[in-house]
Amino acid sequence: MSYPGYPPQSGGYPPQGGGYPPQAGGYPPQAGGYPPAQGGYPPQAGGYPPQAGGYPAAGGYPPAPGGYPQAPGGYPPQAGGYPAPGGGFPPQAGGYQQPAAGGYPSMPPGGGGWGAAPGGYGAPGAQQGYPGGPAPGQPMPNYPGGPAPQPSMPGYGGGVPSNPQAPAMSRGYRGSIKDFPGADPLRDVEVLRKAMKGFGTDENAIIELLGNRSSRQRVPMVTAYKTTYGKDLIHDLKSELTGNFENLVVAMMMSPLHFDASELRHAIKGAGTDEACLIEILSSRSNAEILEINRIYHAEYGKKLEDAIASDTSGHFRRLLVSLCQGSRDEREQVDISLAKQDAQKLYAAGENKLGTDESQFNAILCARSKPHLRAVFHEYQQMCGKDIEKSICREMSGHLEDGMVAVVKCIKNTPVYFAERLNNAMKGAGTKDRTLIRIMVSRSEVDMLDIRQAYMQKFGKSLYTAISGDTSGDYKKLLLKLCGGSD
């Protein structure tokens, strides 16, 4: 990384070569290491633990002799160690389970929300949750997926996927922005101060700095700037920057949930309401995130989010938003297929199989059930009546309620595809919906931007990087492309 002032060294962090420790022989070294006594740690006689009768039994720890760990068997030991055979976690032989593809553990478990691994957004039948996956050839861990205690209630996700056309999402961290090693907010604000003071502004220095820091590294800069210079960083940035570039930079300096609260506030206040923004945020965040957004909104604006929504919307659309902003959706991963079939029948009876529409039934199921459960419901609905749930909603509803219900369904079915469509709509045609573009690029850059890029390419035949490059310009484009992370 090279930009004015910081960091001084090249090659990342740490600067020294050779790794840790530098000497050959592994960790600890076979001879002459620590402690100095030959034979490893502890000493062969009189040490801790004793060779016989100690803890654990033969085959465990300490290794004999030659360092740590003992081969073969690894950790835990094959016999007498922890966990005990037939009941430990994980059960397979060969020691402590190695990470599955995509990293261990997946953080957080499937179910969606800020920071969620993309398993939470997968299509029906995709294995989801924590840990990242079983080792090759091993049936465990199986969460969710194993059969439920009753044979009539199989776990959703086990065995053959209910929708074989839907590919499983990749695991591991799927954001485009990562923590920069060794970042120091006090040194970072020096770069920002140098870029802003004097005649003119060094926008490239600001782009390089902010585009290579995660949210949790950017937010502390606000306090560090005030501590160092006695001035407000956001105020100084606004005074030096203009237009969409200014709006993007300011958005990146806010914590994710404060940014969500501010976007909800903007969507509600003033003439007109940005209904799509309300649905986008409330349908894609986890319960914990929605509850925190509620707290921030009340603290910042002196009014409950629910009251603000209720005073600015009406009818069944208002009920939908009020339900979503409660942050009390079921977040269990295991699915009862029999209950999914019942819910699919209820939706059919409330819509396609009824003169008129029972909107409250749709509201109750779409806002209260878990996302894995709803993916099973949508599949059962398709199997039962031969129609996609989205098309049924479009036939039965209209206006903002139709748009809201369809958006909830799309977000639950496949969140990256939903956001890819939102980005495309923001950029297609005459003009650009820059507020939507900024909000999605900032809020998803550390969640599932890699999956959104993949979905965009598959659905629209060009990379998101190319689309942004063709629809924006200048410093605004440069920083957006940093958030995008690359071309596919």
From TrEMBL:
One cellular component term from this protein's GO annotations in UniProt: cytoplasm
Sequence ranges of Pro residues compositional bias: 133-152
Keywords: Annexin, Calcium, Calcium/phospholipid-binding, Repeat
A molecular function (GO) term: calcium-dependent phospholipid binding
PROSITE patterns documented for this protein: ANNEXIN_1, ANNEXIN_2
Entry superkingdom: Eukaryota
Low complexity bias: start-end ranges: 1-13, 21-82, 90-105
Keyword Repeat: yes
SUPFAM superfamilies the record matches: Annexin (SSF47874)
Swiss-Prot/TrEMBL GO biological process terms: cytokinetic process; phagocytosis
Region (Disordered): 1-181
Ranges annotated as biased composition (Gly residues): 109-123
InterPro entries named in the record: Annexin, Annexin_repeat, Annexin_repeat_CS, Annexin_sf
Domain notes: A pair of annexin repeats may form one binding site for calcium and phospholipid.
Family of the protein in this entry: Belongs to the annexin family.
Name listed for the protein in its UniProt record: Annexin
Organism from which the protein derives: Betta splendens (Siamese fighting fish)
